[in-house]
Amino acid sequence: MGSRFLCRKVQNTNVITSSLTSWEDTDGSFCLFNDDSELSLSEQPLGDLLYQAGTSSAVWAIGSNAICKVKTWTNGMDMESDTLAFVKANFPNIPVPDIIYAWLDEKLSRSFLILKRVQGNTLAQVWPSLTPEKRDGIASAVAQFCFELTNLTSNKFQSATGHGVLEPFMNVRAKDSHPSWKPRLLGPMSASSHQSYLQRISRIYKPPVTTAFHFYHADLGPTNLLISDDGKIKAILDWESAGFYPKYWVTLKPYMSLGFCLPAADDRYAWADLLPAKLAEMGFVLDMADVAWYKALDLSFLDTDMFRDG
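User: That's the sequence. What structure does it adopt?
Assistant: Structure tokens below.
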């Protein structure tokens, strides 16, 4: 797995004790070993490819009970495992997958995250079969989770652990020489620096920035919500963009991002409409002036490091 570790399915408990970590599967156990192990390891793929986004990220199944998520990484970027640990420590009632093992492969500029597999289907998959009441209940639950998350604030625009934020929708375009696969971070920024950044990219009115930034998942689209057979939220996935954001971003992001759309054409914007409606009940009301501001942004390249604090 990457350039550092090897993974193998075993039945021998003596082998398990010599591994870095292990987890049970339906008919044996999977173990992770250093790549200098003298064990004879199969070079066959361990599981099915579940998801791939070009060369930037992919998710594989490892047996029946685990997945491995591989993501491109750049210097100063949070690992998703750190964000998940942060969420578990601060919001124990919010359902997130359990971490088995995580590491950074600097040689490949990739982060690796092995998670316990959560059984369920994405909201995008089950949406057509849900009753209006079930859809409404899921949206209310997600809005409540958002409300709880945003009660935690910071005096900086930053990631969970104080680094730059991975939010392409708030970032300017990359310069032509920047590798397309390489993530670009924004921040961290103090309130005054963030205000200066917005001033630089704004053509018209810009939303106010207070001294408090609110913790927010920032990608609560229908493919990142796992739903049980009875219509409950089993897990919220993909926390790599989570961080402390201006309050207006909580409602503006669902409106602007196609990631909140459903696959079926006749229901395409149903989730993108329903979630903000429930957020409004929690006090997060979409201001159409913010929408007009965002659509008019000048996102041509500039050196965002000049606004960076820390």
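Helices lie at 13-17, 80-90, 123-126, 132-150, 191-201, 249-256, 270-281, 288-295.
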